[in-house]
């Protein structure tokens, strides 16, 4: 996976794996909020990031294989949080186009968003930098 931020501190990388089922997304939203709070993100930034993670996961769940697991990697740096979500995909699956509403949501709520799909897996990476005022 490509990391969007600079070098992450080794101890500040969290990996969570949950079943690729919408019922488990609350775990990822809670982890996202907790890590963003640790970075002293503003409350509205935390909520934006929670929504972005939820949207990214929804995009991936739509193309996930049956009984798949959703892998989420959180990398914490001094001023940013990178969230990478990966899932095995069904044959021929494609992510929504960057002009789609879902991508507009991701790019509006984060500093940057990217996606890759190769070898039967899709990954969406979200980078959010803390704003100056905290």
UniProtKB/TrEMBL annotation:
One of its GO terms (molecular function) is protein serine/threonine kinase activity. Its EC number is 2.7.11.1. Keywords: Kinase, Transferase. It holds the Pfam family HATPase_c_2. It is an enzyme of class 2 (transferase). Residues 19-86 form the Histidine kinase/HSP90-like ATPase domain. Signal peptide: none annotated. Coiled coil: none annotated. This is Serine/threonine-protein kinase RsbW.
